[in-house]
Amino acid sequence: MSKALSAPEGVTWKSRWTFILAATGSAVGLGNIWKFPYITGEYGGGAFVLVYLACILMIGIPVMIAEVMLGRAGRSDPADSMAKLAKESGRSRYWGVIGGVGMLAGLLIMMFYSVVAGWALEYVSQSIGGTYSNLDPAQIESNFSGLLASNSQQLLWHSVFCVLTAGVVAAGVTQGIGKAVDILMPMLFFFLLLLVGYSAVNGDFEAGLHFMFDTDFSRLNGEAILVAMGHAFFTLSLGMGAIMAYGAYFPGHSSIGKTVMTIAALDTIIALLAGMAMFPLVFANDLTPGQGPGLMFVTLPIAFSNMSGGIFFGTLFFTLVSIAALSSSISLIEPGVAWLEKHGVKRPVSTFGLAGIAWLGGIASIHYESVFNALDYLTANVMLPLGGLLIAVFVGWLMPSDRVLDETGILHAKVFKAWRFLLRYIAPLGIIAVFLHSLGLLGWLMRH
Ligand code: PFF
User: Fold this and answer.
1) C-beta 56 within 6 A of ligand 1
2) Residue 2 pLDDT greater than 50, yes or no
3) Would you say residue 2 lies in a domain?
């Protein structure tokens, strides 16, 4: 048995539970609270949610187990881990390129992620100042458009967020983040529950639930399916090495399966709760669920403006959203930093260098909506699923099965078999089918 117990430079998380919290911190972020509700709104609700859940279960979870395993077995940055394991398996070291492209994807995501996190920071300040608490729903909507029209305001908060992210990563991840997520993730969960309660009492809860869970397949098209699959990767932080980089610090040799199920379950529950907190308010206030990226920044302020204690709750909520974004953004640049560090660049230098590049890209996202949208679309719907596809092929088909069995630590033979089946067939074929479908090719092939 090849028990690789030492991490890069001997660093490991304090326990399996700290890994779960850090990985959950990476997974739970703007994807759950901001993006999931608004894309569900844009793509028509129930049927979209169902496809998303199927993607999490049949593609996301198997790929996540593979990524954690690759990180723990390789004990290095994603590029090096994959190159090393490829060589050991008698394959080309060029498989390491997947890790390299993943680092790039992380930077590209950061270029719009940080802008949205900046909006959340602006809303912390607006909540404290009571800016939206006396406005009516229409004014709250135009208050958000006002922010989007102000490049300087967005630049300020985007810069603050980049510096915060770089500060944490430069200081090292294990101590600061391990401790922070420990306290903050349960708090986030608690406040979401409170908001769902508020929404149930004051919103049109029934309409919200119908919208999220009634499956009307006529509203589903190729693009919606692609977006649902892309989001499964985005929300679980898969396909770009973030989870692999964290897996490199996974202590011991315990089974990866249950750990991953816990992370995926937490992530999914939080996304569904966020939807259940927002849609009832959307319907109760005659807003449209398909209004796009502004959804969270319009519906929640409306709720808070009606709520006694709204200033307090609003401040707390947007603070927690900012923190959830921060515990994700650090994992966007950590893989690149780990790689540079391995190549002799000091951590603070590499961190501020990479954050600086992301900051510049973010300025482009602020000035051009098309850049913002293109970065979002390219990373979530193309780069992450493609990375996931190659990881599934690599672990499912190219690594020796006994090595894989040993490294995942999955003891139950049936579970291992089921996972491997999903990884070898369902995940790759599913991803390819969705790509073809969204390009319109599947329909063409079936007709000919
Ligand atoms: N999972 C994060 C979210 O849902 O907000 C976003 C993310 C973080 C994507 C890290 C990819 C990643 F590597």
Assistant:
1) no
2) no
3) no
